[in-house]
Amino acid sequence: MEYRRLGKSGLKLSEISLGSWLTYGTKVEMEQAQACVRKAYELGINHFDCAVVYGTQPHEAEKMLGQVIKEFPRNTYTVTSKVFWKVGPSTYDQGLSRKHLMDRVDMSLQAMGLDYIDIYYCHRYDPDTDLEETMRALDDLVASGKIRYYGFSEWSAAQIEHAAAIADKRNLRRPVVSQPVYNMLNRYIENEIMPVAAREGMGQVVFSPLAQGVLTGKYRPGQPPAAGTRAADEKVGRFVQGMVSNEQLLTRVQNLKPVAERNGLSTAQLALAWVLQRPEVTSALIGATRPEQIEENVKAAGVKLSPEDLKEIDTILEGSVTTSK
Asked: Using one digit for the tens of pLDDT, what is the confidence trace for 24-35?
């Protein structure tokens, strides 16, 4: 495993990290999910990502994660949570108000059985709360020791700039990380978010580097999704339906295979390695339902692709790449 510094912070995260979205606390049984976490830690992954809303009910994935990470020395890993989405009937069960942030951190700590959360994310931007209120609350949470660092998930460049400006103006602790979607097919962060975040000293921990499994090559043109795949799942298949029904896109993904094989990689490993070619990216979040998937994915760490490889990938995918949100 290779490790990278998270922006200008002192944290060093594994190039491949393990996420919990759409997996733990939902369709993956507890024992199997915990086996994945143990395998990830064994292979050098030191960063585990979670959120209040992950799982079949609030804090469910956090509870699962907490049960297994307690087996590891606390100083050897980083764990995250995220807050914003509505998780209860009360008007206070959503958003980025001081009240919701303070209350929800305590609930997350209890769910995971931890004394502190390494990185706490604002899961989305909250237009109904003054940003200075949110920033002061985050600063107070760091000062209290309940969180160590904070950042934003899927915030625009302008929103990140505004937050950093408030931190500087009010002498508050600054954000250190942005967590957006980023992969070969969705590159919208390259134009504004990457340069702005880099200027503000923030690293990128990107999610969906395999485009919800589409970039593994397992979905083939003219064939229905195989049983057990995400696209075949009625509950979560909506996240990939647009892609798996696009036969031209699926054909182009299949055409990536020679580039992968030339580098001794699978198509999935190529997609992960591609994401990690960007110096702005600190880590790529993967999801896994089986330990073997993690064993394969971590092989993308440390891989260097040639300029010719990168150019060929762009040529193959031309016309299927999203560059705006």
From this structure: 555 567 788 889
> Class of the 3-211+277-301 domain?
alpha beta
Which of these, 281, 253, 278, 277, lies nearest to 267 by C-alpha position? 253
Res 247: pLDDT? 77
Residue 232 to residues 55, 185, 218, 223, Cα–Cα distance (Å): 19, 21, 12, 12
Q: Inform me whether the pLDDT recorded for 240 exceeds 70.
A: no
Are 13 and 298 in contact by the 8 Å Cβ rule? The answer is: no
Are residues 192 and 168 in contact, defined by beta-carbon separation less than 8 angstroms?
Answer: no
Q: What φ, ψ does residue 186 adopt, rounded to 5°?
A: -125, 100
Dihedral sign from CA coordinates of 86, 25, 79, 300: negative
pLDDT, average across residues 171-183:
97
Catalytic residues: 54
Structure tokens at 37: 């976490």
Place of tokens 């790449």: 321
Instruction: Name the nearest CA neighbour of 194 among 156, 224, 143, 228.
Output: 156
Q: Residue ranges per domain, the chain?
A: 3-211+277-301
3-state helix, strand, coil in the chain (%, to 5): 40, 15, 45
pLDDT for 238 beyond 90? no
Evaluate whether 10 touches 198 at the Cβ level (below 8 Å): no
CB 87 within 8 A of CB 93: yes
CA distances from 110 to 37, 81, 105, 226 (A): 19, 12, 9, 39
Does this model's pTM top 0.85? My answer is: yes
Query: What are the helix (H) ranges across the chain?
Result: 30-42, 60-69, 98-112, 131-144, 157-169, 193-199, 241-244, 247-254, 257-262, 267-275, 291-297, 307-317
